[in-house]
Each structure stands twice: as C-alpha cells, then as structure tokens.
Amino acid sequence: MHSCHESLLIANAVSKTEGVIKFFRWLRDNPISIPTFAILPEGDAELLQAAADAVDDFLLLPFCAEELRKRVTRLLSPKSLSLEDIQASLAGEIGLRQLVGQDPAFLKALSQIALFGASASPVLLTGETGTGKELCARVIHLLSKRHQRIPDAQDVLQAEVNRHQLHGLASIPLSCSG
C-alpha cells in the first residue's frame, strides 16, 4: 500500500463483512500518504465507526453523483495552509490595511511591500520624515517568514552599525562589558 502512485484510494464497502472491518482497522493503524474515501452501506454503526476512524471522507449509500464529485474534488485539491501560514497571512493583511493612500507612487510601493515581505533579503527603506517608512517596515516584517524570530545580539549590533554608517557617523561606541 505504501508504494502506491495513485492519487486517491476509494474503498467501496457495499456490505459489511469481517474483511471490510479488518481493512478499515488496518488502514487506521497504518496510515497511507494518499487521500482515502469510502462508500458505505447505510445503517451499520460498527462499519461507520471503523471507516470514520480510518478514511479522510465517506458517503453512505445511496448517494448523489454530484456529492461524490464534490467530495473527491475536495480530497484531490491542494492542501490548505498551515495555521502558522494563515496567521502570517492575516497579520500581513492587517498591516497592509493600516497603509492608506491613493497616490500612484504610494500604490506602487504598496504593491511591492508583499514582494519584499516574501523575500529573505534585507530591505532598505528611504524617504522623508513622516512618509511611513516605519509602518512599511513593520508590514514587511509581518509578511516575512522571520516575523516570529527574535533577533540575537549580533543582529542588533549589525543593525546599529548599519544605522551609524547610513547616517555618516564615523565612530560607534562599542563598550561591551560582561
């Protein structure tokens, strides 16, 4: 079973037999990597429980062909995002909604924020005071895969060195004790 190349396993259990119950119990104890679907006779609680514990979805006989098509389509569709991906996406959307404006240059910058957030590269934001650089930086961070990472001391020190270099300061006080 584990070496199958099919994309869906359909178990058509027309009637309850010991072999059918045994199959569903085996499937429960030995999960396979492909989606599993069962077609079951109506009215057998033991068979229903065995199938429900083992398969991804099932239908009871008689069923509508359209219902079968919809369920198989759902099983074969790409998997949904993980909870962490959903949280990151929502955080990014909330951050993007904090940015308000209609100027074409602003809208162009806004469309690029999602691209920057998806990148692992550092981003340098420049602009006049009060133009929203800090808010853009926060949204980019929320969209990034690093949004939950806590910076270590070396990251903080490097950011401070970069900040001083950008502002043209020649010396940086580096007094580290301890």
SSE layout and pairing:
Blueprint: E1 9-12, H1 18-29, E2 36-40, H2 45-52, E3 57-60, H3 65-76, H4 83-97, H5 104-118, H6 133-143, H7 153-166
Helix pairs in contact: 1-2, 4-6, 5-6
Descriptive terms for the model:
single chain; 178 residues; mainly alpha; Rossmann fold; 2 domains; 3-stranded parallel beta sheet
Describe this structure in words.
This protein has 178 residues and is mostly helical. The chain has 2 domains: 9-76, Rossmann fold, CATH 3.40.50; 83-166, no CATH class. 49% of the residues lie in helices and 7% in strands. Strands 1-2-3 form a 3-stranded parallel beta sheet, with helices on both faces. Helix 1 (18-29) links the parallel strand 1 (9-12) and strand 2. Helix 1 runs parallel beside helix 2 (45-52), helix 4 packs antiparallel against helix 6 (133-143) and helix 5 runs parallel beside helix 6. The longest helix has 15 residues, at 83-97. The radius of gyration is 28 Å and the shape is elongated. Residues 1-5 have low confidence and may be disordered.
Give me the oligomer status. single chain
* Tally of distinct domains: 2
Query: What profile does the largest beta sheet have?
Result: 3 strands, parallel
Q: Which of globular, elongated, flat, extended, rod-shaped describes the shape?
A: elongated
Helicity level: 40-55%
In terms of DSSP E residues, the strand content is: 5-15%
Which sequence of SSEs, written as H and E, runs from N to C? EHEHEHHHHH
- Provide the low-confidence segments as ranges: 1-5
Q: What structural class do you assign from the helix and strand content?
A: mainly alpha
Spatial strand order of the main sheet: 1-2-3
Annotation, overall tally of beta strands = 3
- The end-to-end distance, rounded to whole angstroms, is 60 Å
Tally of helical runs: 7
How large, in whole angstroms, is the Cα Rg?
28 Å
The overall pLDDT, averaged over residues, is 76
